[in-house]
Amino acid sequence: MFSVPVWSQDARLQDLYRDLADSGPKQAIGIERDIRHEWSRTGSPAIDLLLRRGRDALERGEIEAAIEHLSAATDHAPNVAQAWHLRAQAFFAQDRLGLALSDLERALALDPNHFQAAFGLAAILEQLDRPEQAARAYALVLRLHPHYDKAREALDRLEARTGDQTL
Hints:
The structure is a single chain. The protein has helices spanning 11-21, 25-39, 45-60, 63-76, 81-93, 97-110, 115-127, 131-144, 149-162. The protein is an all-alpha fold. The radius of gyration is 16 Å and the shape is globular.
């Protein structure tokens, strides 16, 4: 295995999460960009390359290739939350929800502030028709990233669907 720092111990990332939670809408854009940049930096050029190849394959719709690259990343650096998150996206694209959920749980265990992983979890729970659990997950996203518009829209949609403003 490669030596890769544990995300939860990365002081810069923790500072960015804190800043994001306290930011205004305009500030949030730059802070989120910085967080995404930190997510792609593992301290290992080899793992960074696997993440980049996996993300690029996902963007091109080459899901099997993405899974191969990201599985290599999770095998060699199992403490990199972003590798688990990206592989979950690939599994989701294949409608392999159980595997996606498992990878999202792993990503969130490694980095409980990973708002994109929390959003992915919420989206899957919503797709599985578990509105109360989905609403809790979307609310978590908004605690982590108060200006995550897709999470706000999803939470509003769930509340409108159920007619329960206290989901």
